[in-house]
Amino acid sequence: MKSSERVSEVPGRRASGLSEKYCVEIYESRPALGAAVAADVAARIRQVAARKAEVRIIFAAAPSQSDMLASLVALPDIPWGQVTAFHMDDYLGLEAAAPERFGNWLEAHLFSKVPFGAVHRIAAEGTADEICAGYAARLAEAPIDIVCLGIGVNGHIAFNDPPVADFHDSQAVRVVELDGVCRQQQVDDGCFARFEAVPERAITLTIPTLMAADALFCAVPGARKRAAVKAALEGPISTDCPASILRTHRNCTIYLDREAAPHG
């Protein structure tokens, strides 16, 4: 059931001859947004689990996802034992135990909270090429059913920042250089104390990997995301705003609070 705090729903539309099938839902508050996304993700998990043994999900790690994850782990009757979890990006150059690592953030907020069937983290040790190849092999074992993601201040999805984003990337997982806006966001989000501490390189799932999933649930709260959301929803479909590609997915819902909504 949708939250009573939902204030509007905007279906996708046709533009420039391209069928856009996304849907935008806007909520009064960040907690209401998180509860709505969690309810929809839980419903999708139950649907997939009813027809096959494994539900494969990719999760984003960011403070913007905290409300959704807290709501999700509190919901009853989710068949977590059938869920295989992945995450979509992580830093290079941090110690394995560093709390800033996304795998560790998800451990604290999600992986340790419910009994997953399996959890596959991006490795903290090994060469970058080995880490990418190993994770790509894990992802390729079966189709991805669900992606839970957000949109960055610069319009990125995962760590596909505008300078490196590729809608037709031939790799499933790759090493990227993080742009300055992305690194500053990590400081502004409270994940790092200073800009210089944010790693310059990371490993990310590529855009085709994310877009190949059956269903995308994109949670985007906060005023700092408003310009990126406006570009993603109203601008051209371009790597200048990588999140704009979400409009072409066959089953993508974008959840906003009033602060993030382009027209408030």
Automatic annotation (TrEMBL):
What cellular component GO annotations does this protein have? cytoplasm
Give a GO biological-process term. carbohydrate metabolic process
Q: Domain named Glucosamine/galactosamine-6-phosphate isomerase: which ranges?
A: 30-251
Pfam family name, one: Glucosamine_iso
Task: Return one GO MF term.
Answer: identical protein binding
Q: Which organism is it from?
A: Marinovum algicola
Would you tell me the protein name for this molecule? Glucosamine-6-phosphate deaminase
InterPro entries tied to this protein: Glc/Gal-6P_isomerase, Glucosamine6P_isomerase, NagB/RpiA_transferase-like
